[in-house]
Design goal:
Elements (H helix, E strand, L loop, with lengths): L6 H14 L3 H14 L3 H20 L9
């Protein structure tokens, strides 16, 4: 992903991470797949961006109990 996601994508990523935790990537991918199956290419592309933002967010978040430098 190049740079930070747009604010609306970022907000969705944060909500997905809060609701689904470690499963947020899988859940956002599932939504994208369903939209693609329904022929909504733009919606699927948006959810792929959400998935990428969740991946970025989770890569930046220390695990519980992990030291932050």
């Amino acid at each position: 992903m190049s740079g930070l996601p747009r604010p609306d994508i970022w907000q969705m990523a944060l909500l997905m991470d809060e609701r689904y935790g470690a499963d947020a990537i899988v859940e956002s991918s599932s939504v994208a797949e369903h939209l693609l199956e329904d022929g909504d290419c733009q919606g699927a592309a948006m959810w792929r961006r959400v998935q990428e933002a969740v991946q970025w967010l989770q890569a930046q978040t220390p695990a519980p109990g992990e030291a932050v430098h």
